[in-house]
Amino acid sequence: MNIDLNLKIGGAAGQGLQTTGMTLSKTLKKSGFHVFATQYYLSRVRGGHNTFQIRISDSPVYAMTESVDLLLALDAASIEQHMAEVTDGVVVVDKDVIEVKEDQNSVFHVPMLKIARDVCGDKIYSNSVSLGAVIGLLCLEMSDLETILKLSFRKKGEEIIQKNIAAARAGYDHVKENYPGGCKFAVSEPDQKDDLMLINGNEAVGLGALAAGVQFLAAYPMTPSTGVMTYVAANADRFNVVVEQAEDEIAALNMVLGASFAGARSMTTTSGGGFALMTEALGLASITETPAVIFLCQRPGPATGLPTMTEQGDLQFVLNAAQGEFPRCILAPGTPEECFYLTAEAFNIADRYHIPVFVMSDQYLADSLFTLPRFDASRVEVERHLLTDQELRTKNEEYRRYKITPVGISPRALPGQVGTVVVADSDEHDEFGHINEDPDNRIKMNDKRMKKLEVLREEMPAPKIYGRPDASITLIGWGSTFGPLAEVVDILNEKGRSVNLVHFTHIHPLPAEEARNSLSKAKKTICVENNSTGQFARMLKVDAGIDVTGHVLRYDGKPFSPEFIINALKEKEVI
Amino acid sequence: MVSIEDYGKYETAWCPGCGNFGILKAIKQALVNLGKEPHEVLIASGIGQSSKLPHYLKCNAFNGLHGRSLPPATGAKVANHELTVLAVTGDGDCYGEGGNHFLHTVRRNPDITMIVHDNQIYGLTKGQASPTSEIGMKTKVQTHGVFNMPLNPLSLAISLDCSFVSRGYAGNIPHLTSLIEKAIQHKGLSLVDVLQPCVSFNKLNTFNWYSERVYEMEDTGYELNDRVKAFERSLEWGDRIPLGVFYVNDKPSFEEHQEVLQSGPLYRNKPEKEKIDPLIDSFI
Ligand SMILES: Cc1ncc(C[n+]2csc(CCOP(=O)(O)OP(=O)(O)O)c2C)c(N)n1
Ligand code: SF4
Q1: Is the dihedral of CA A227, A230, A236, A237 positive or negative?
Q2: Which of A130, A248, A386, B163 could pair with B188 in a Cys bridge, judged by C-beta atoms 3.0 to 4.6 Å apart?
Q3: CA–CA dist A535, B241 (Å, integer)
């Protein structure tokens, strides 16, 4: 990695942080950089202090870091809170607007408001002035920013496009004329410009669902899951999807089950609090053996918790939610790429095993932007596992929705198919689906359902190993923490340590044997999780008899950075 | 030709003499009269004595959770709008536990026929008050007698502009049959609130009690789409209790708003993977 720069934009909600950050991310991606961007925002629509952080590099980056090279301060809080993070960088600020008390060398005044008024006659163009200034300080050319501005304002007409470009150029020129040496960071555009995507986790889940042929989505809005619902809704007409905003999460999952029972590939999206309401219907999905995909985007709880922050605090809840014992499947993507492929896989598992399948993400992955190689839609298979009319006709026995089979999976017909009826029941039932409270029947049906879990376990792939398989220290992670953990492995190995990462995306049913194998070689195994009790480590213990040697936990609402993990490892004398 | 026999004959778990038997008969007869084959019909139900009904006739059934008959019914109807979808529920199931779904399903207006077995009591849990229990009714829980205002399902439905609002009586099967037929034929959400004597727990609203009071409205005396008149009529409850269709409002159903359903049932659509590439491109 030759180039590694961290840009932070700070401001109040409603100040256009998101737009500025997005435009800058797109521009830098266009210039050929790998981009990783995260947002830190409060649960309010206006005011408060939020940040948009962009890291750029000439190699892939999947995590944020804590030092800041360029701070674009749009409010006073940005200076108060983040000045200390800028060790050897530059702080861009409009001193006409924001009072800067302790004037330091790093502070560079750009009169954004004045330039916007002078050049375009309106202060609303000051965001574009700031964009030009940032590109100038990075010692880059203006052309990519111009292209992105053209694209962004395409719908608003030529005049608006030109004004934004003029504003950006004025900001750029201001840097060239006033910054000592004309610019701050000697970065040059990478020669090789890959065909990369810039996408966040939620969009990737939505895209995965569409690729998998989702037909019905019912959900109730809840941060940070809502992005998936809106992404699918935005494309619903083109992809023949019905999206319904249910009256509550109870209705959402029950609707999904009705739709799925009648044959539609269906999913719901929610966060922990909403899922708490869905637990009742989760059991219904299982006993009726109705496929359902549940996208669960975690945020810190309990109750309303920290609505816009991140945590991996719902694993044990999802593992155990709802009364009784029944099979479920949990997948946890670590990158948007995995969000895409695993969401599609979730539909196939649901349809194959007739069980609820979770895709567990969190606010960090949901809202972070990554540059990634282009997704390959041709890798997505749609496997429905339904009885055809022909198969139904040629059966010489009466159709049994819950027929006992060696693998526990019964043939699935749909209501409306001629020659049979399909009966599903939340009560314990016989093979036909009719209520049956007989003890022998109960055992048979329970065993049949649980059998599927064991069959599925065989299919769950082993965890991925990042770094050398025989390292002496193994970091263990699941889901969204992949990026920061992989970077820690790179940093420490570069310093001569022997560290690898065993990362789990297929969480439950846990491939226990493979898990034990991949963790058997290391002297130290440290489980790194975004929660306070080590929920995944507990699962490793219970499901695979694995005792980890240590934990690194974070539960202040923020995601891991490589520095945070390395500091914790030092403190615990692991390294 | 469909016949009553096609809908099968099953043993039930209902008390002898229960009003539920009349409702079951009327539903079967209505489906036969309309020429519906069992495989074309899907009944979604909740939990309660009433909600066991789908097990007592042969058709597709989704017997779900207490209070939740309407959301799966809605989902199923969207997935395959060629199915005739009924939601069979009780007064506790539909107006109590499932009250929120009732409100919002009326707003959504899917083409579903709701048949509410309104026995003014909780049957399956052995005799607690329901949202429609009369003031003063004593139970083991309501030991001082019910004092919460009973909910009036018809007034509520009319106030919400429900597409089809009617009341039947389990003791008048021919009338109930024709009501259910009309409800199924109506496009949009149809409510059939059925007065259903519970011979085991409701000692107040018995067959005799209802029979002395109910009367069939030959003619409502107003245009059926007159909401105010219908509302007024729905308040009639006491010595005389009207049966029949109170209110009809033809408005587009939930499915009709979904353009994607015009080309056929949702579940039949084939995924069009070639449309994914342009979407992926939009992130490049
Ligand atoms: C979530 C939940 N709460 C409570 C119950 C217990 N329960 C079963 S049926 C019922 C009431 C049924 O009353 P109603 O809908 O009027 O039906 P009826 O039995 O009178 O036909 C209750 C409270 C349950 N099954 N599930
Ligand atoms: S308890 Fe009442 S409603 Fe239930 S079956 Fe018996 S009589 Fe009918």
Answers
A1: negative
A2: B163
A3: 60
Contacts of B161 (CB under 8 A, 6+ apart): B106, B227, B249, B251
Interval between CA A534 and ligand 1 midpoint (Å): 39
- Can you list the alpha helix ranges (DSSP code H) found in chain B? 20-33, 70-79, 91, 99-108, 153-159, 173-185, 207-213, 227-234, 254-257, 276-281
Q: Do A216 and B61 touch (CB under 8 A)?
A: no
Q: Closest Cα partner for B71 from A18, A231, A323, A216?
A: A216
- Residue A326 touches partner B, C-beta closer than 8 Å: no
DSSP annotation string for B187-226: SS-EEEEEE---TTT-SSS-HHHHHHHEEE-S--SS-TT-
The set of residues, in sequence order, having a beta carbon less than 8 Å from that of A411 and lying 6+ positions away, is A387, A391, A399, A403
How is the beta sheet containing B190-195 ordered, strand by strand? A423-425, B60-63, B41-45, B84-90, B112-118, B190-195, B164-169, B241-248, B214-216
Which residues have CB under 8 Å from A168's CB, separation 6+? A128, A129, A131, A132, A135, A142, A145, A146, A149
Angle at the Cα of A200 (from A196 to A202), degrees rounded to 5?
A: 135
Spacing of C-alpha A538 from chain mean position: 23
DSSP A480: G
pLDDT (tens digit per residue) in A250-305: 999 999 999 999 999 999 999 999 999 999 999 999 999 999 999 999 999 999 99
Q: Do B267 and A255 touch (CB under 8 A)?
A: no
CA distances, B71 to each of A252, A258, B79, B139 (Å): 7, 7, 12, 31
Please tell me the distance from the alpha carbon of residue A375 to that of residue B277, in angstroms, as a whole number. 9
Q: Are A339 and A208 in contact (CB under 8 A)?
A: yes
Q: Running DSSP on this structure, what letter comes out for residue A154?
A: G
How many angstroms separate the CA atoms of A559 and A208, rounded?
24
User: Which ligand is nearest the CA of B126, by number?
Assistant: 2
* Residue A104 pLDDT: 77
Is the backbone peptide bond immediately before B16 cis, with ω within 30 degrees of 0?
no
Residue A83: phi and psi, rounded to 5, are -55, -45
CA distances from A527 to A318, A419, B192, B272 (A): 19, 54, 58, 41
Cβ-contact A312, A529 below 8 angstroms: yes
SS3 state at A517: helix
Beta carbons within 8 Å of A333's beta carbon, 6+ residues apart: A201, A204, A205, A339, A342, A343, A359, A361, A365, A479, A480, A505
Q: Is the CB of residue A252 less than 8 Å from the CB of residue A225? A: no
- Whether residue A85 contacts residue A51, with contact meaning beta carbons closer than 8 Å, is answered with no
Beta bridge partners of B244: B167
pLDDT in tens, B269-279: 998 889 999 99
pTM: 0.97
Contacts of A218 in chain B (CB under 8 A): 75
CA distance A482 to A236: 31
Residue nearest to atom 3 of ligand 2 (CA): B198
Closest CA to B96 of B179, B55, B156: B156
Taking an 8 Å cut-off on Cβ atoms, the answer to whether A264 and B103 are in contact is: no
Which residue out of A30, A147, A231, A255 would a mutagenesis test of the B interface target, given it has the greatest number of B Cβ atoms within 10 Å?
A255
Amino acid at residue number B125: T
| A489-517 residue pLDDT tens | 999 999 999 999 999 999 999 999 999 99
Enumerate residues lining ligand 2, CB below 6 A.
Answer: B 14-15, 18, 20, 49, 119, 123, 198-201
| Number of Cβ atoms within 10 Å of the Cβ of A478 | 29
Would an 8 Å CB–CB cutoff place A415 in contact with chain B? yes
